Amino acid sequence: MTERPHRNFYGRTKGKTLKASQQGYLDKDLLALSPGAVDWDANPERTPLDLATLFDGKDVWLEIGFGGGEHMVHQAASNPGVGIIGAEPYINGVAMLLGKIRRAGVENVAIHPGDARDLFDVIPPASISKAFLLYPDPWPKARHHRRRFVTEEHLVPLARCLKPGAEFRVATDIPDYVRQTMEEVPKYGFTWTAEGPSDWRDPWQDWIRTRYEAKAIREDRAPHYMTFRRD
Questions:
Q1: 5, part of any domain
Q2: Which domain holds residue 138?
Q3: 213 annotated as ligand-binding
């Protein structure tokens, strides 16, 4: 049996009381959208997921912290030839995503309602073609910067999961998060692909504005769009 690591988790896992419809989505839909055994209790040996069977041999993308699910459903609907796994510990966001999946009718998705680090454990090496980190928790206080995703604890296992040449997209409206992203991500096997200012000022061509981005713009914070390539 693999020894279970100690992992601190600092974010919220639940917010306000769910609507009856949202609780229904969780009860009826979530289990069927599981990527497989991810949690330590269900998979103490950390047996890798069978992504080829899960998505019928399609390329697999990963969204880390999908929020309300707008972007994930948009990408799934726009790219039916791809399978997309989303990881999100905030159960209210998971419920929102499930509602959007029903309305959009997309089937090429899987959901891990928990810590992305547990998912990284069981994703086979070099199996993910594209990853998204969009408006992650900024942890603005200096003493909390180590809690941000763009640290060694997260970037090393993410890099292991990505195929050589895979794309890693990061969007944030927090200048210091931009700084830390640009300092840390290249340390762990990634190359920034920007050639000019428009590459980080303008959104990706297939971008859909999320509610988090809309809030940032209303509050006069400029979005930054950073694209990295797995070496």
A1: no
A2: 20-36+45-230
A3: yes
The answer to whether 231 is a known ligand-binding residue is no
The answer to whether residue 14 is domain-embedded is no
Flag whether 211 is marked binding: yes
Distances (CA, A) of 2 to 113, 116, 121: 22, 18, 11
212 is in an annotated binding site: yes
Query: Which pTM does this prediction carry?
Result: 0.93
Domain count, the chain: 1
The verdict on residue 9 lying in a domain is: no
Active site residue 137: yes
CATH number for position 27: 3.40.50.150
Task: Name the active-site residue from 29, 39, 59, 137.
Answer: 137
Low-confidence stretches of the chain (pLDDT beneath 50): none
169-218: per-residue pLDDT in tens? 999 999 999 999 999 999 999 999 999 999 999 999 999 999 999 999 99
Residue 172 lies in a domain: yes
